[in-house]
Design goal:
globular, single chain, 7-stranded mixed beta sheet, 55% strand, 119 residues, 4-stranded antiparallel beta sheet
């Protein structure tokens, strides 16, 4: 099991930037696929981005391609989500998640951090 704690959310104007961080502890972080999800009010949780341990495989939702970047520092057991050119529709609770590289199930979740983008 991996314990995940997000930080970095907040209120930002449209066009601005935020960087979310997710600190992991527990099992070997390096071999986990790390992802960021978000859930807006009244909507289902959706995946935003994911990255394997080496960075050789990354995924971005179409809605954030070119604006968001997922990165990770395996030495510091931390994964980041750099969010640029934020839009009001990016407003959501953002969750960090982890799954073993051999699994398709996201097994560990953080508590979430609120991101609010105003006009």
């Amino acid at each position: 099991q991996v314990q995940l704690v997000e930080s970095g959310g907040g209120l930002v104007q449209a066009g601005g930037s935020l960087r979310l961080s997710c600190a992991a502890s527990g099992r070997t972080f390096s071999y986990y696929v790390m992802g960021w999800f978000r859930q807006a009010p009244g909507k289902e949780r959706e995946i935003v981005a994911a990255r394997n341990w080496s960075g050789s495989s990354t995924y971005y939702a179409d809605s954030v391609k070119g604006r968001f970047t997922i990165s990770r520092d395996n030495a510091k057991n931390t994964v980041f989500l750099q969010m640029n050119s934020l839009k009001p529709e990016d407003t959501a609770v953002y969750y960090c998640a982890a799954r073993p590289g051999s699994s398709t199930k996201w097994s560990d979740w953080g508590q979430g951090t609120q991101v609010t983008v105003s006009l």
